[in-house]
Specification:
Strand 3 and strand 4 form a beta hairpin. The protein is of the alpha+beta class. The protein has one domain. The protein starts with 8 loop residues before the first helix and ends with a helix. It is built from three helices and six strands.
Length: 107
């Protein structure tokens, strides 16, 4: 997709040790998220910066987000400034809008 840098070990460990919450309000779009206030704020911000620096632009219907792919998962935020970003989302690649659009499996 692009020549992005892989996640450093510190962020891999942060992702693995964080408690990700399933987004129950959007069952047609299976994904999970972490909230800044419930995790290490410094590592959260580092992950946001990594996503935005090393990710790629991708669609979600008419919106465009920056996605970062690692180990079969896509990570993204909702586009607020870094200081205002409170949530990091992730989903399996096959549950992304672009993959589901290509496969004809949009809800």
């Amino acid at each position: 997709m692009n020549d992005s840098l892989p996640l450093p070990d510190s962020l891999r460990q942060f992702i693995a040790s964080s408690k990700w919450t399933f987004a129950k309000t959007m069952p047609e779009w299976p994904h999970e998220y972490i909230v800044r206030e419930r995790v290490d704020g410094n590592l959260f911000e580092q992950l946001v910066r990594h996503i935005r620096t090393n990710g790629y632009e991708g669609a979600f219907y008419e919106k465009t987000y920056i996605y970062f792919e690692e180990d079969g998962l896509l990570y993204w935020t909702m586009g607020n400034t870094i200081d205002e970003t409170t949530i990091i989302n992730r989903c399996k690649n096959e549950n992304s809008y672009e993959c589901r659009l290509k496969n004809g499996t949009l809800p």
